[in-house]
Design brief:
With 129 residues, this protein is α+β, with helices and mostly antiparallel strands. It contains four helices and four strands; from the N terminus they run βαββαβαα. Strands 2-3-1-4 form a four-stranded antiparallel beta sheet, with helices on one face.
Length: 129
């Protein structure tokens, strides 16, 4: 039995910010996931991203990731963040070339654009080796 949740099972339809964490086992897949996610959000740590968007946008991100990972060996998790969620941290993750990861910064995150099926296929092709 698969542990994978389908998009219709994603809770928290009210969330506008999401924390995505991944554990990708194979370097080529990791590179593909990294290339995709750097366009969709802000990298917080090596395998943790901050995304902005409504539930539909996050479902599109998950569908694209489903095409890039091996669901039997890789792990991708998305956690909803409420508007009251605040970021706390220590160390170098909060020193990103002069960017301060604060509420004002989070408000500027772009929402994932709606992408057509043709654009998704084209993007997937570009990411393939």
């Amino acid at each position: 039995m698969s542990k994978t949740h389908t998009p219709s099972q994603l809770p928290h339809s009210h969330a506008k910010r999401w924390l995505l964490a991944h554990d990708i086992r194979e370097p080529k897949r990791l590179q593909r996931v990294w290339r995709y996610l750097r366009q969709e959000g802000v990298r917080m740590q090596h395998s943790v991203y901050l995304l902005k968007g409504d539930r539909d946008a996050i479902e599109r991100v998950m569908e694209q990731l489903r095409n890039l990972i091996d669901e039997h060996s890789d792990d991708v998790r998305i956690y909803p963040l409420t508007e009251n969620t605040r970021l706390w941290g220590l160390g170098t993750q909060f020193n990103d070339g002069g960017n301060q990861l604060c509420d004002a910064f989070m408000d500027k995150l772009r929402e994932p654009a709606q992408v057509s099926t043709e654009q998704q296929a084209s993007a997937h092709k570009k990411l393939s080796y």
